[in-house]
Write a sequence for this structure.
């Protein structure tokens, strides 16, 4: 089945945007556009896709209009984005809290991507540790220790959903660890960081637009209060891990690190081939 393509008219919100890409139209598939919209809480703002900005950065774009190439205005997509945005606007709501934390994590990832483009090893060392702390607090503690145990018995196929979410959390952390191992040797592995971004964007899109929407329908006021209290307690007791020193290793350790990264690259290549041969793309 072919992807539904969209024509998206935009205006760049960055004050120093050059005249050539301050406004215009980009063509993108619907699934990718939903992911770009998930970067910002505003209903009419989305993140520019890779290559759209002439300066090479990911900018905030204001949505002017969205049209299917063959059907006119894309009403279905608008409903999906508004649903996620409406939940995020709630006060003292545990699902809104998690969705808004997704926005903070995506903004941190955008900062890491800019540091990668500028080849700032030390800045990346600090930012990726900050990213690890955010993922541990958000995913490893608030979701896995508070949200999932409470919902496994209350959601249809709750245990299976919990397994999938935990696996995706571990995939993101594992790939990020590989990137930090390279940083420790002074190397910036673009492919590994790209894998982190791809996994993170896919995971957040599924949680915001599928899992959290499902969860929201099964929560009573009492359960919302219990979840919110548990998440606040977790956050109050969380102690972030500092970046530490970036160690330059011996030649022998560098060789071992290079072999480890090559193994990871081979794994990604095999995974890409497998996905290419799949009928559903998963």
């Amino acid at each position: 089945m072919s992807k539904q393509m969209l024509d998206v008219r935009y205006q760049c919100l960055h004050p120093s945007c050059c005249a050539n890409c301050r406004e215009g139209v980009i063509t993108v598939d619907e699934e990718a556009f939903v992911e770009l919209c998930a970067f910002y809480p505003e209903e009419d703002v989305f993140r520019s896709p890779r290559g759209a900005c002439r300066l090479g950065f990911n900018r905030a774009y204001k949505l002017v209009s969205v049209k299917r190439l063959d059907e006119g205005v894309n009403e279905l997509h608008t409903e999906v984005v508004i649903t996620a945005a409406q939940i995020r606007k709630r006060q003292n709501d545990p699902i809104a809290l998690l969705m808004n934390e997704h926005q903070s994590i995506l903004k941190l990832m955008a900062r890491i991507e800019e540091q990668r483009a500028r080849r700032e090893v030390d800045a990346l060392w600090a930012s990726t540790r900050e990213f690890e702390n955010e993922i541990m607090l958000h995913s490893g503690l608030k979701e896995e220790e508070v949200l999932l145990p409470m919902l496994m018995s209350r959601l249809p196929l709750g245990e299976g959903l919990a397994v999938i979410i935990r696996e995706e959390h571990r995939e993101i952390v594992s790939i990020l660890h590989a990137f930090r191992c390279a940083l420790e040797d002074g190397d910036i592995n673009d492919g590994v960081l790209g894998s982190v971004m791809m996994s993170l964007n896919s995971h957040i899109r599924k949680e915001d637009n599928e899992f959290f929407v499902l969860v929201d329908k099964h929560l009573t006021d009492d359960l919302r209060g219990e979840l919110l209290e548990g998440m606040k307690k977790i956050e109050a007791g969380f102690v972030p891990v500092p970046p530490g020193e970036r160690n330059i290793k011996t030649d022998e350790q560098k060789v071992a690190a290079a072999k480890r990264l090559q193994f990871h690259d081979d794994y990604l290549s095999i995974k890409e081939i497998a996905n290419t041969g799949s009928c559903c793309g998963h």
